[in-house]
Design brief:
- The chain is built from no helices and nine strands.
- A five-stranded mixed beta sheet has the order 3-9-8-5-6, with no helix packed on it.
- With 156 residues, the protein is mostly beta strands.
- The chain is 0% helix and 58% strand.
């Protein structure tokens, strides 16, 4: 029995800062993102990349990648068609969202769907932190000088 259509499995989905492809066809992912730390909001990300790899499917498919804000609104959405001729094949799709403005702290989400079936939804927390490289407003105080030793003999 030959299958004419099998919905693929999502082998991986990674959010990162940059994706490059070597001459050999292999991919290099830079800056894999677990969360976003910023000193203040709003902030604009020049580029946000989503790397998805599909396998174990047969047929023509439509992938949808969504970036969801903390209030559950869809900030960005990408759609691409791909095909798998055999269940042993795989397909790699790269989505690039440019000029993404993060307005509020909270949990954003990446959603990955294939043919309107949600395969994965993962959180991307956006956290406000004080910049560790920020200079203090006052210069640091030197540590206190050690006490001078006493010339008196120790008590008996």
């Amino acid at each position: 029995m030959n299958a004419t259509r099998i919905l693929p499995d999502l082998q991986c989905s990674l959010l990162c800062e940059e994706i490059r492809q070597e001459i050999s066809g292999n991919f290099i992912l830079l800056g894999i993102v677990a969360y976003v730390r910023v000193p203040q909001l709003p902030v604009a990300a020049v580029k946000v990349c989503v790397f998805n790899r599909w396998t174990a499917g047969v047929g023509q498919f439509t992938e949808v990648v969504r970036l969801i804000a903390p209030d559950e609104t869809v900030m960005r959405q990408s759609q691409v068609r791909f095909a798998l001729q055999d269940a042993t094949n795989n397909a790699t799709n790269v989505t690039i969202f440019t000029q993404v403005e993060l307005k509020t702290a909270g949990t954003y989400y990446i959603e990955v769907l294939v043919d309107e079936v949600m395969k994965l939804r993962y959180p991307v927390p956006v956290i406000i932190v004080q910049n560790p490289r920020q200079r203090p407003t006052q210069p640091p105080q030197p540590p206190p000088a050690p006490e001078a030793p006493s010339d008196a003999p120790p008590p008996a």
